[in-house]
Structure to design on (590 residues):
């Protein structure tokens, strides 16, 4: 029971974390120089953005679900898969 | 029998909410001066009948006429100890009052683990003698594990004002154990012995407990485990006057006391604990709720947070291992943490499609990012060990261009350097984290450029007690010679300290 519906907030947060990891790993390898304070905006900003995206996505889904209920029976089985 | 139980022997009902006194609801509370007798048993029977209960609470209690006296504290232990001893009932860890030596902890442990309590007694005594772990455990078990016929542990009794010798002795045990344990913290071998012995004891207990765990029907065992506690008559939901308000009888006991040293100001107030207990006891009396099993709420996709954390640990370790040869410790740490953060990112991004990660993973990622920031802010030449290098060049020709320490306490002693008239000797020194001390001869002019990332700069005139830690310190100073016969030469120093202290001092002439 691993598969579920797509959650874009998680994807955004994860991508920002990966970006922070890459930025610092490159700094450690000497490929470029990263100021130490970069992680703040990158990680915290990424997580805030992720939260905003997931809230937005939830709102959109709720609206569309409600709209779908208004017209005909909701396709709940599709969403669960 | 503890002191407070002696104190509770008066006609007042028991203070403990879980004590199965066999008393019915409020109306069956005897007045002051009530004694065991026919009226007492009658009240019990009436109470049980009123409740419509299966008489589970009253059953074992009413076996003897004398023990079924409501409201007398003396029968509490005997009456209720028959209850949990029902065959097949799974034990929770309780102190065993009947076979106790000191407080019944070892006896309870032996009963819990199906082992001879002597094993626990001897091992805990050995553990107490070597490092105090035994005392520590015994004291805290005494404090936090209730006796088998009570629902309250000693800490709760203490905090609710029923201070008695048992609780104080338990506190003393715990304190002495803590002291002995702390005093043994430096002694690694004793500590190792204690930890290994306690792990062995715990393992033996666990094995013994699960030796016969192969029950024929786990579902039946589950049902037994989930069965609600036996129905108990509710305690009277009122609290009782404190002992100091009552007259004290000649022999030192007092009339109507409860053993409380302090309590609610108005004795007519309802006791909240008792009220809660009543509320809790009600569902236990209905027969249809016996196999009450909550069906777990469906929680959505399974969490992958644990795997992500494990993988991040592994990735961090591998990153450090791969970078450490040939690179400094700070660089390796940064690489490892960056790898771990990347794994967290991959896991969280993956959970957009598969599995579930929650606040725990995000928190761990934040912690990793904070550590990564700290490791990036560290000077890159930090090493994992603290070194104490000391250089003492004998002549101008011996002075190197640069001296470096990663982490440690470096001393550059230039007191034997005489640059000569109008000549300049230049020395550079760099310390990542730690302290850099440069000793200069008294008869030369010193031009110093000192950079300290975070820390303090000490110059010859400064008070050594005056340590002023500040970030981003940068000083260019010219120190004139302090002797009457200056040599005319100049020492040019270029000092860098990442985190720590840079000190320039004059050698004694």
């Amino acid at each position: 029971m691993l598969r579920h519906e797509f959650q874009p907030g998680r994807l955004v947060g994860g991508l920002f974390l990966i970006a922070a990891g890459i930025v610092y790993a490159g700094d450690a390898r000497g490929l470029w120089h990263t100021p130490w304070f970069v992680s703040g905006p990158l990680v915290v900003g990424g997580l805030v953005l992720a939260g905003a995206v997931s809230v937005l996505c939830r709102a959109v889904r709720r609206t569309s679900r409600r709209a779908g209920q208004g017209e005909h029976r909701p396709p709940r089985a599709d969403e669960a898969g | 029998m503890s002191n407070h139980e002696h104190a509770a022997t008066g006609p007042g009902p028991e203070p403990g909410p879980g004590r199965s006194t066999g008393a019915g609801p409020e109306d069956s509370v005897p007045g002051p001066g009530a004694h065991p007798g026919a009226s007492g048993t009658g009240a019990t029977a009436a109470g049980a009948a009123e409740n419509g209960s299966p008489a589970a609470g009253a059953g074992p209690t009413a076996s003897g006429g004398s023990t079924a006296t409501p409201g007398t504290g003396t029968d509490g232990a005997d009456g209720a100890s028959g209850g949990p001893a029902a065959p097949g009932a799974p034990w929770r860890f309780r102190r065993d009052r009947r076979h106790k030596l000191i407080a019944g902890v070892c006896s309870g442990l032996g009963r819990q683990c199906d082992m001879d309590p002597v094993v626990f007694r001897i091992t805990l005594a050995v553990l107490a003698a070597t490092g105090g772990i035994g005392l520590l455990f015994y004291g805290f078990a005494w404090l936090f594990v209730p006796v088998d016929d009570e629902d309250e542990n000693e800490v709760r009794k203490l905090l609710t004002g029923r201070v008695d010798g048992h609780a104080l002795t338990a506190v003393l045990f715990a304190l002495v154990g803590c002291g002995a344990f702390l005093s043994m913290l430096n002694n690694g071998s004793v500590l190792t012995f204690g930890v290994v012995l306690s792990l062995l004891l715990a393992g033996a207990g666990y094995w013994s407990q699960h030796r016969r765990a192969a029950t024929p029907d786990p579902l039946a065992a589950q049902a037994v485990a989930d069965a609600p506690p036996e129905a108990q008559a509710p305690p009277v939901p009122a609290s009782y006057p404190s002992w100091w308000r009552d007259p004290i009888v000649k022999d030192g006991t007092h009339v109507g006391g409860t053993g409380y040293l302090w309590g609610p100001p108005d004795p007519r107030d309802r006791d909240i604990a008792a009220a809660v207990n009543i509320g809790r006891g009600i569902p236990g009396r209905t027969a249809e709720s016996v196999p009450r099993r909550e069906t777990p709420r469906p929680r959505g996709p399974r969490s992958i947070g644990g795997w992500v954390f494990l993988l991040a640990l592994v990735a961090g370790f591998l990153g450090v291992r791969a970078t450490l040869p040939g690179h400094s410790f700070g660089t390796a740490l940064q690489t490892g943490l960056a790898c771990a953060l990347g794994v967290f990112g991959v896991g969280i991004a993956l959970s957009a499609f598969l599995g579930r990660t929650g606040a725990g993973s995000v928190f761990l990622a934040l912690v990793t990012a904070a550590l990564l920031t700290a490791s990036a802010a560290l000077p890159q030449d930090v090493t994992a060990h603290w070194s104490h290098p000391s250089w003492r060049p004998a002549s101008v020709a011996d002075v190197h261009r640069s001296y470096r320490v990663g982490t440690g306490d470096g001393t550059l002693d230039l007191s034997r350097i005489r640059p000569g008239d109008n000549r300049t000797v230049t020395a550079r020194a760099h310390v990542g984290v730690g302290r850099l001390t440069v000793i200069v001869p008294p008869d030369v002019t010193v031009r110093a450029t000192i950079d300290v990332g975070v820390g303090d700069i000490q110059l010859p005139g400064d008070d050594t007690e005056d340590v002023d830690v500040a970030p981003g310190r940068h000083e260019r100073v010219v120190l004139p010679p302090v002797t009457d016969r200056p040599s005319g030469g100049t020492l040019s120093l270029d000092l860098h300290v990442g985190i720590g202290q840079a000190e320039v001092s004059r050698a004694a002439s």
In short: Strands of chain B lie at 390-391, 402-413, 424-440, 445-458, 470-479, 490-506. Confidence is low (pLDDT under 50) at residues 1-89, 283-291 of chain B. Residues 188-211 of chain B form the longest helix (24 residues). The interface with chain A takes residues 300-302, 304, 319, 323, 327, 331-332, 334-335, 337-357, 362, 365-366, 369-370, 372-373, 376-377 of chain B (CB under 8 Å).
